[in-house]
């Protein structure tokens, strides 16, 4: 099993891209316009076919929904509840 893409929620895609490339040394792999946002990924230069980090805007609707779902799961886990969460 392999993780191909994982999201990193960011408040500014351009600023995050500069940080991940200029400071951390990642390289941009994918950039596809999606209205106000972009599908923007970076990868390690040592593993260009490795896991992609999706620099996902935290104000993008699917991001907010995912964050709420994860927060609900974390709260249930902390309380010991086993009930599923609707996405």
Structure notes:
- The protein is of the alpha+beta class and 87 residues long.
- The protein is built from 2 helices and 4 strands.
- It has a single domain (5-78), classed as 2,3-Dihydroxybiphenyl 1,2-Dioxygenase, domain 1 (Roll), CATH 3.10.180.
- The chain has helices at 13-23, 61-79, and strands spanning 5-10, 27-34, 37-43, 52-57.
- It has a 4-stranded mixed sheet with strand order 1-4-3-2, covered by helices on one side.
- The protein is globular, with a radius of gyration of 15 Å.
- The mean pLDDT is 82.
What's the short version?
By secondary structure, this protein is α+β, with helices and mostly antiparallel strands.
Q: What is the CATH H-level superfamily?
A: 2,3-Dihydroxybiphenyl 1,2-Dioxygenase, domain 1
Please give the CATH architecture.
Roll
Total count of strands: 4
- What's the CATH topology label? 2,3-Dihydroxybiphenyl 1,2-Dioxygenase, domain 1
User: How would you sum up the global shape?
Assistant: globular
Enumerate the spans where pLDDT stays under 50 for 5 or more consecutive residues.
Answer: none
Helix content: 25-40%
Distance, first to last CA: 23 Å
Number of DSSP helices? 2
Number of domains: 1
Radius of gyration over C-alpha positions, nearest whole angstrom: 15 Å
